[in-house]
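Much of what follows relies on a compact textual record of a protein's fold. The record below shows the convention in full:
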Amino acid sequence: MTFDLPWHLYLMAAIYILAGFNHFRNPRIYLKIIPPYLPNPKLLNNVAGIAEVLLGICLCIPMFSKAAAWGLIALLFVVFPANLYMFTNKKAGMGLPKIVLFLRLPLQIALMVWAYYYTL
């Protein structure tokens, strides 16, 4: 088995793996941004963390990299409400400037486009 994938795919994988582990290292950060209308925030945080780690690892395996990229697109879509909640709720925004919170919204789209690149 060869791992002839571009370096930027490995960069993306590392970002998601580290972010996924951070869900367990600093869960309070993520629990704050889960909108209150969603049930069981602890479970949702854990599922998101596990998904990020597994999808990041799968990005590095050529046989699974396309499916993992699609999985990341889906995950980014599913967690978008958390970014919107951060923007609209002062407490969830964790004191970050409004412009930073606003820029996180199109960043999600940019991350989806980046992942889409690996589905082709």
Summary: The two ends are 21 Å apart (CA to CA).
